[in-house]
Amino acid sequence: MALGSNLIVGLTGGMGCGKSTAAAFFAEHGFRRLDADQVVRDELLTDSAVMALIREKFGTGVADGHGRIRRDRLAAVVFADHQALAWLEDLLHPRLRARWQAVLAGARNEKFIVEVPLLFEKGMENWFDFTVCVATDSGLQLQRLEKRGFPPDLARQRLARQWPLARKCELSDFVLLNDGTPGFLREQVSLLVQRPPPTHQPDR
Length: 204
Known about the structure:
The protein is an alpha/beta fold. The protein has helices at residues 2-5, 19-27, 36-44, 48-58, 71-78, 82-105, 138-147, 152-160, 165-171, 182-193, and strands spanning 7-13, 32-35, 111-115, 130-135, 174-177. It has one domain: Rossmann fold (3-Layer(aba) Sandwich), CATH 3.40.50. Strands 2-3-1-4-5 form a 5-stranded parallel beta sheet, sandwiched between helices. Helix 2 crosses helix 10 (182-193) and helix 3 (36-44) packs across helix 6 (82-105).
């Protein structure tokens, strides 16, 4: 396997399906976690060059008084405008991939679980040794998002920007069902990590 014989698993699913919970269970089996949303939030949207490009594109209304990007204001703009969202994703995803490659290049014989909400939407499936989708009932998705503070209309708007969950399940190598207890999800992860990975070669 390429890149220092690291095993790299792509984890996806819809909002509110439990990707982070599943990733934590992978970590119990020695996987290092990489979270796309966290990298974007903590590294890319605080990068001076990225912030300057976003302010230039969308104006200072998406920033605070110090020029730092306000994620809530930026989200309100891009999720209401498909072209604006596509522009932002085109800005961030190459930089996101570069950050991951820097981490992976410094690792040898490690296992990684990489959380990527838009894994299939952005054609990233060939970055990984295999892909896993966390799935749940749509009603549970909305309930979980509301508990996280998303108003129902905003939650539906965000979900509409992602591919249907059934399509992601169809494209994934493995599917984890998260309609039950955390213990049920943990058991599925435990069984999965004991399986040999598929043999296709990732494009890294």
